[in-house]
């Protein structure tokens, strides 16, 4: 720390760092529930949680919905499939991809974990009033939208540079 301790280090003020630390702390609390009981990794639970609400999806759709990279999605899906928690069936509209869905056993685990995860969420949000919770959700949604907009602009600029270069 600097000689002037009244100013926190820059990293503590850096929003991506704060979000990452908060995300890891929150995910870690919930992960304790399903890792010990069901031996699931965070990436595997994310896939199961999305499939629990969305039914069958392709790996590309899962990657988009979880913001996980394609390799991590593929690895998680294979691990879940080997344990009998998800199944694959060919995508009728695209022969190169498959639809991934929870099996009955996977859905049973999802149904067991969700109330526990919601309970932890409630404990985490307990210090906040309803209005603060709504503001937090709104701010997070706006941050995601801003990040997507910046990402689209950056990708577009890189594409233009590549075609002109």
Describe this structure in words.
- The chain is mainly alpha-helical and 165 residues long.
- It folds into two domains: 12-127, Arc Repressor Mutant, subunit A (Orthogonal Bundle), CATH 1.10.10.10; 129-165.
- The protein contains seven helices and two strands.
Q: Beta-strand percentage?
A: 5-15%
- Main beta-sheet annotation: 2 strands, antiparallel
- Summarize the helix and strand pattern as letters: HHHHHEEHH
Second CATH tier, the architecture of the largest domain = Orthogonal Bundle
Strand order of the largest sheet: 1-2
Q: What fraction, in percent, of the residue positions are helical?
A: over 70%
What is the third-level CATH name, the topology of the largest domain? Arc Repressor Mutant, subunit A
Shape: globular
Terminus-to-terminus distance: 44 Å
Kindly report the name of the CATH homologous superfamily of the largest domain. Winged helix-like DNA-binding domain superfamily/Winged helix DNA-binding domain
**Count of helical stretches:** 7
Mean pLDDT comes to 89
Task: Provide the number of structural domains.
Answer: 2
Number of strands: 2
- Give the CATH level 1 class of the largest domain: Mainly Alpha
Going by helix content, strand content and strand pairing, the class is mainly alpha
């Amino acid at each position: 720390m600097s000689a002037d301790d009244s100013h926190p280090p820059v990293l503590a003020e850096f929003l991506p760092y704060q979000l990452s630390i908060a995300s890891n702390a929150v995910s870690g609390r919930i992960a304790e529930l399903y890792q010990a009981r069901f031996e699931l990794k965070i990436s595997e639970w994310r896939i199961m949680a999305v499939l629990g609400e969305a039914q069958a999806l392709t790996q590309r759709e899962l990657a988009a919905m979880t913001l996980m990279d394609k390799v991590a999605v593929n690895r998680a899906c294979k691990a879940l499939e080997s344990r009998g928690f998800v199944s694959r069936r060919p995508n009728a509209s695209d022969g190169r991809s498959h639809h991934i869905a929870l099996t009955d056993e996977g859905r049973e685990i999802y149904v067991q974990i969700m109330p526990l995860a919601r309970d932890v969420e409630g404990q985490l949000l307990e210090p906040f009033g309803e209005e603060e919770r709504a503001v937090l959700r709104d701010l997070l949604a706006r941050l995601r939208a801003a990040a997507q907009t910046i990402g689209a602009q950056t990708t577009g600029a890189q594409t233009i540079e590549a075609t002109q270069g």
